[in-house]
Structure formats: structure tokens, C-alpha cells
Amino acid sequence: MDDEDIVRMVLSRVLEKLGFAVDATRNGQEALEVYTRTVASGVSYEAAVVDLTVIGGMGGVELARELHHRNPSLRIVVSSGHTDSDAMANYREQGFADVIRKPYTIDEVKKVMASLAAPGSRVSPA
After folding, report:
1. What is the pLDDT of residue 120?
2. pTM surpassing 0.85?
3. Which of 2, 29, 47, 102 could form a disulfide with 51 if both were Cys (CB 3.0 to 4.6 A apart)?
4. DSSP H helical ranges for the chain
5. Is the separation of the CB atoms in 47 and 113 below 8 Å?
6. Taking a C-beta distance cutoff of 8 angstroms, is the pair 68, 97 a contact?
């Protein structure tokens, strides 16, 4: 989930190249809607990548709480360019499994995702 079109598009393509099925959304509310609809259809998610800050919408911390309420074992990665934020510095305390700092590199995304989910798995609204 990322509110910036170019970031969402690039990250989706990188994840797809790494072998993941991706559902990309603009904000937390849209992510929850897609997540709920997809899970109801019988498809499960192993991981989610969420933007920390979304202008005018639900951001990563609130979305992570909502996703964990629905699936406590979902591995959630927080993503941001605001590296000095508390959520980025103390991401585990905020309920995140890992962090990807913007701008990302393919190698960084690959390393983080390899520790969280197997290629071929679905990545929740990223």
C-alpha cells in the first residue's frame, strides 16, 4: 500500500519479478477492502508492505493494527522515506516484521521479502 503511484507501481513490479503475486492499493482503507474481499474468496496472504504515511488516508501503523486483528500471523513490512520516525526506528514495537527504507533497491526488497514469504505467495495490498 502506497499513496504515490510511481512508488506503488515500481514496488509491485519488483515484487512480481521476485515471484510474488501482488495486490497494490493507494491507502489503508482500500487495502483493507481488497484484503477482506480476497481472503473471503479463499486466497490467503503471507506478507504486506505498507507505507508509513498516507496523506489524507489510513497509514501504515493503523493499517498494520487492522490487518493483525484479521490475521495475527501476517508479516507486515513498513516502508517510508521518513527514516527518523519512531515507527521506522522501532518497527518491531509497532508490530512490523521488517522495514524497507525509500528509495529502495531491488536487492533490499529481495532480502527483506526472502525472510518473510516464499515466492509464489500473495503479498497483501502492497
Report:
1. 72
2. yes
3. 2
4. 5-17, 28-40, 60-70, 86-89, 106-114
5. yes
6. no
